[in-house]
Structure formats: structure tokens, C-alpha cells
């Protein structure tokens, strides 16, 4: 039994999740982490699950066609060790190429890592939201200044704020 | 009325609290609606002392409900004093059979819970709140009106007493996060 990464994308219709997960459960696969969303009319799924590679591939075979499906063996589980405190990064403004690359480059340059991100485009408005971890040594003031300068060049607005949770 | 709660202290219970184990989801007790309790029952007075004692030894913990120590009962301890987000604060108290009578001004914030150690989640809660309940050992209902962080904590604990976790109230399909642990 190995850990598998299954990706599925295709034009949206009711029942994609039901079809794919039914095929998987037939092979005895246990779904672990997954993320699924609708991207401009295409339904996209990424699933990490533990199961027998050949059987999973075979079980998903009949669904290929309208759906583009990949199955990949991933080896042992790789736990993400947080590198620092969590922050929320949001960017919004007029759409243009290069927003994601410029902003994430600033985060990377500060030693930070993006753990979750999504972008949406509606009309001319581009919106980016990301969960970011920054190492304790990161210069927050410098990063904020760098983000501001980048945002100004791109003509967008950017905010970075702590995402720490309250223990209740 | 508020003075009654602010003036309350665990010493008034007259029993020594014991530190109990905190149960974690998916333990079924966390999904069970708690029984209405008799605040004068000696067993419940002991439980009240135990909740305070267990809350006190748990780092960062501002509230603890009976189901979290394995008892499906409507009782919780709370103490948000010293928390940076606290505005109105009634100090340490235990409340039995608490009910929300008024709530308004919802705000979303990220919550964690000792019984759900691996996740946090965004939850919308009222920031203005009025709650009634009975202090352990007492008979008369007391009313507590509060705001901000104390209001959020009260709603989180009252949910526990009803067999609900913050996971039952998250604000969207992408509103549950792996807990970030570092250092």
C-alpha cells in the first residue's frame, strides 16, 4: 500500500466527486487530504490517499475521457513542519500578468512559504488570498515595505496580517 | 447581577479540584448533548472544581466544558482575564445550564480547541452576548452580558455543552486549517 496523489480535472457536471470517490472506495482506498473546487467551469480535485497503485489506476480508467485523471505514487508521508507563524496575505486589483509571481517572490525572499493559495478573476478584478508562514527571523517591516512597493508597481492593493487562532 | 459572577471564586466551592484528562475528537461524548445539571449536587460541585483545575494547568486555555473531560453535562468553566483580545471580563467562573438570550454583531475569527488539537477553523460568532445560567452551588439564575473575546469563548463553551464543536460551525469549505505548530 503506498500513498497516492490523484488529480482529476474536467468540465463541471453533477456527480464528478461521487463517481471518482465511488471508484476509489471500490479498491478499498481511504481518502485522506483533498481539495476540490470549481475553476472557471472546470471541476478540479486533488486527493492524497493510501491504496494499491495498479488497482486505483484501473478503477479510474472508465472515467477518463471528459475527465483528465492522473495517479502518482508519492512514497512515504511527508509531514509539513511549520517554519513560523501563520499570516494571511490578500491582494486585489486590476488584472494583469505577473501578480502571483511578483508577490510570492517577495514572500520567498523573506524565507516565507505559502501553504495555501487561491486566486479568482472576475471581470477585470483579480483577487489572491494566501496562507503564508514566515520564519521568526523574517523582517516583517522589510517584507511589508517590499510588498507595498511591488503592489504599487503592479497597481494592486496588498495586506499581510497575522492569522493566529485563539485557543478556546 | 454581573457582580455576582465577578465576585465568584472557585474557593467558594469548598472542594479541591482535580486535574482530569481532556478528551479529543472523535470521542462520542463531544458529540453528545449535555444533560441539564443540578447545580447543588455535590458531584456537580466537584466537577466544577475539576473543570477550573484542569483549565488552569492547560496552557493558553480560557475555557473548558464538561464534555471535554468526558462528562455529557451542561457545565463549563471560563476565564479570559489577561487575554489580549479581552474587553469586558468577568474573571474566573463556572456556569451550569447556560443559555444564550441575546446575541448580535457577528464577526469571524479563527478558533482552536484543546479537543481538536490538529485543526483550527474560521467561525462567525456574536460579539455582543447575553447569557443566563446558574453558578455551581447556587439556585438563582444569573445573567451575564459581555462582548468581544469573552462573548466568543462563552459561545464556544455553550456549543460544547450542546455536543457541538467549532467544526460544526466553520465559515466555509476552505475554513478548516491544519494547526500551525512551530518553535
Descriptive labels:
A: 168 residues; alpha+beta; Alpha-Beta Plaits; 2 domains; four-stranded antiparallel sheet; 9 strands; 45% strand; B: 183 residues; Peptide Deformylase; 19% helix; 31% strand; UPF0237/GcvR_regulator (chain A); ACT_dom (chain A)
Outline the structure in words.
The complex is a heterodimer of chains A (168) and B (183). In chain A, helix 3 runs antiparallel to helix 4. The two termini of chain A are 38 Å apart. Chain A is built from 4 helices and 9 strands, in the order E-H-E-E-H-E-E-H-E-E-H-E-E. Chain A folds into 2 domains: 72 residues, Alpha-Beta Plaits, CATH 3.30.70.260; 78 residues, 2-Layer Sandwich (Alpha-Beta Plaits). Chain A is globular and about 50 Å long. The mean pLDDT of chain A is 93. With 168 residues, chain A is of the alpha+beta class. In chain B, strands 1, 2, 3, 4, 5 and 6 form a 6-stranded antiparallel sheet that branches. Chain B has 3 helices and 6 strands. Chain B has a single domain, classed as Peptide Deformylase (Alpha-Beta Complex). The longest helix of chain B is centred in the N-terminal third of the chain and has 16 residues. Strand 9 of chain A pairs parallel with strand 3 of chain B, so a sheet runs across the interface.
Amino acid at each position: 500500500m503506498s500513498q497516492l496523489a490523484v488529480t482529476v480535472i474536467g468540465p463541471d457536471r453533477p456527480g464528478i466527486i461521487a463517481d471518482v470517490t465511488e471508484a476509489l472506495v471500490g479498491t478499498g482506498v481511504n481518502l485522506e487530504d483533498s481539495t476540490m473546487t470549481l475553476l472557471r467551469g472546470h471541476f478540479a480535485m486533488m486527493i492524497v490517499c493510501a491504496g494499491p497503485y495498479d488497482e486505483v489506476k484501473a478503477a479510474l480508467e472508465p472515467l477518463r475521457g471528459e475527465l483528465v485523471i492522473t495517479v502518482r505514487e508519492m512514497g512515504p508521508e511527508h509531514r509539513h513542519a511549520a517554519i513560523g507563524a501563520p499570516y494571511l496575505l490578500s491582494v486585489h486589483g486590476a488584472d494583469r500578468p505577473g501578480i502571483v509571481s511578483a508577490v510570492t517572490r517577495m514572500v520567498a525572499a523573506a524565507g516565507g512559504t505559502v501553504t495555501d493559495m487561491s486566486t479568482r478573476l472576475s471581470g477585470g478584478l483579480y483577487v489572491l488570498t494566501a496562507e503564508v508562514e514566515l520564519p521568526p527571523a523574517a523582517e516583517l517591516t522589510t517584507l511589508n515595505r517590499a510588498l507595498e512597493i511591488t503592489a504599487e508597481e503592479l497597481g494592486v492593493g496588498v495586506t499581510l496580517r497575522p492569522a493566529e487562532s485563539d485557543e478556546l | 447581577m454581573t457582580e455576582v459572577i465577578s465576585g465568584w471564586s472557585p474557593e467558594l466551592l469548598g472542594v479541591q479540584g482535580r486535574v482530569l484528562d481532556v478528551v479529543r475528537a472523535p470521542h462520542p461524548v463531544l458529540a453528545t448533548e449535555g444533560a441539564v445539571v443540578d447545580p447543588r449536587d455535590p458531584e456537580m460541585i466537584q466537577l466544577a472544581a475539576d473543570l477550573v483545575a484542569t483549565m488552569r494547568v492547560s496552557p493558553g486555555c480560557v475555557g473548558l466544558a464538561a464534555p471535554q473531560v468526558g462528562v455529557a453535562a451542561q457545565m463549563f468553566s471560563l476565564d479570559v482575564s489577561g487575554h489580549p483580545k479581552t474587553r469586558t471580563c468577568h474573571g474566573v467562573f463556572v456556569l451550569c445550564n447556560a443559555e444564550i438570550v441575546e446575541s448580535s454583531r457577528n464577526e469571524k475569527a479563527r478558533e482552536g480547541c484543546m479537543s481538536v488539537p490538529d485543526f483550527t477553523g474560521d467561525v462567525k460568532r456574536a460579539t455582543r452576548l447575553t447569557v443566563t445560567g446558574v453558578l455551581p452551588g447556587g439556585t438563582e439564575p444569573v445573567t451575564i452580558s459581555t462582548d468581544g473575546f469573552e462573548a466568543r469563548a462563552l459561545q464556544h463553551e455553550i456549543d460544547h455543552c450542546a455536543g457541538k464543536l467549532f467544526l460544526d460551525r466553520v465559515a466555509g469549505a476552505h475554513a478548516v486549517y491544519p494547526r500551525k505548530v512551530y518553535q
